[in-house]
Fold:
Amino acid sequence: MDYKHSELLRFTTAGNVDDGKSTLIGRLLYDSKSIFEDQLEAVQKASERRGEEGVNLALLTDGLKAEREQGITIDVAYRYFSTPKRKFIIADTPGHTQYTRNMVTGASTANVALILVDARTGIVEQTRRHAFIASLLQIPHLVICINKMDLVDFSEEVYTTIKEEFEKFSYKLDVKDVSFIPISALKGDNIVTRSENTPWYGGGTLLYTLENVHIGSDHNFIDARFPVQFVIRPNNDEFHDYRGYAGRVAGGILKKGDEVTLLPSGFTTKIAKIDSHGGELAEAFPPMSVTVLLEDDYDLSRGDMIVRTHNQPNVSQDLEVMICWFNERPLQLNGKYAILHTTQEARCIVKDIRYRLDINTLHRDVDDTTIRMNDIARVVLRTTKPLFFDSYRRNRITGSIILVDEHTNETVAAGMII
Amino acid sequence: MDFNYNLNHLKELEAESMFVLREVAAQFENPVLLFSGGKDSILVTYLAMKAFYPARIPFPLLHIDTGHNFQETLDYRDELVERTGARLIVGSVQEAIDQGRVVEEKGLNASRNFLQTAVLLESMEKGKYDAAIGGARRDEEKARAKERFFSHRDEFGQWDPKNQRPELWNLFNGKKNIGEHFRIFPISNWTELDVWQYLSMEGVNLPSLYFAHQREVFERDGMLLAASEVIQRRPTEIPFETTVRFRTIGDITCTGAVKSTAGTIDDVIDEIAASRVTERGTRADDKRSETAMEDRKKQGYF
Structure:
């Protein structure tokens, strides 16, 4: 097995309740031989105990007691499977509206979103909501799985109608790459093997799409950004004067000898060395974790950022942000929150709520601006110190923030900088 | 110029885990790394060495010693501590039993696994640790599939699966009130196969228990358990010698062996890739009920 050349792809699944998400995941795991006998046996036993007919594959993913009791998915679960070409991480997120925050959670790191549509009902409110969240979170690739094709006699017309309807709706969204696949998760059509029932469909199976979608450009390789995470000072005889800046490359490519500017101080110096446990590296790119050493002895600490001198991020205390609110207590206008951004932490005040977005109609409500759990809104934040950031569209790492309630320490919002 | 800025999946997992370990060092005052001597905690220790190179790992290793360990595990642990210069702290279950702080289970399936939780929480309180890094993986078990990298625990060390902090992008919120702590799982996204492939790629050596060897075992409920004086046997459970290896290493009393001739790391990779049962299929502690792991985690198990 050529595991040394396999890539990692993260995807998330979205769909209405009973659209067959769990069945789809069960099918992918089962057909790619990633379900083990003891897991299957445990699920079989649990299904029997619950008095269900046949094996309920959803029990593979709904692992918590409360989830099994209620037959719903409460929280994001992560599943894994691999083929010789790629390893896959599935963020299995709940479809219920009250758990939108979990969909946002799963979507924040995904390369691909699978959106399930029931062929019998077509595009529904929930489909639009999921597609919108996927576009808001800039998931690079969308795969629309038109499921339950077996229940509409594998009709090409049904497939085409849904596809056209989605396309018409998605013009309003900011999505770059969309593909459509007619499937039956229950029967296994076009999941791992091509279906004989859809001779009119010329595209690949779901697994083929997941294995071949181009993810090499999903990172930003243009704008060099290195947030300092931790300062490494061994203080021993061998490495007496060693001062390394540990971090994860958030954008661009760093090379030894590059001229760089240090933020916030604005000093300019050069990269003396990129170090790792395995020895010196010629260059570093996202998402590598490395240690950078500088030619001059400037004092940097966590939260500072190393950038290319001729390509610098925005530096400001005022941010325009699209947020998704996560908490039962509504957003407080003029309220103060802790804000986390890259390795930087500050406090902020909510200066203005521009509008609340109705994600079903994409209507911007400027009158009722009470932001409750699962709402999406555009807000203006003023931070206690300048942040170094890019727009989220340009870089998902340097363009994202979270807000934390300073009394309860809960993460109350996810934000994308405009 | 050839534009090929791709990391293979193992290198990407490595980068993610190193990032998490550095976040722990930056966000917490007094973290500790839970070291059991199994391959997962060995991997986490190795990744920590990488994350802070050329400095030493900036937190101590904490071993909760059940007193029912395989000798091979203890030898490996001591050698690793010697080689890396890490600081080792041992929390002893035997001592807790002797002092009457915990009560040992009785009977055929008696295990100290449960007592580990109490001693772990005691040790954390004693050392005032505010973060405990563990080698748990989400692919191990269905309750673990729901875990976060930063897993918040209340002042009793309890996990509340319904009240987990959402984790977005790579922004980890480690804020907590006094008395609370976090469990940190840097290798959440690794599978058993990833761990072995990575250890092979990096040339990391492992305790001999993981490779095929002759051992006296007996069969119980379809599992092969090591014949040891710490496990009570029924008269019908007659030990025999055979060639086995272990897929997971825990307490002797609950760790099952598998028949295997895999003598090298690459043999093990081939064997796991073809295996039709999960690694925790050999763990008696998970077979106690449908939600055995979730229940233990709620009580403060890692």
About this structure: Chain B touches chain A through 64 residues (CB under 8 Å).
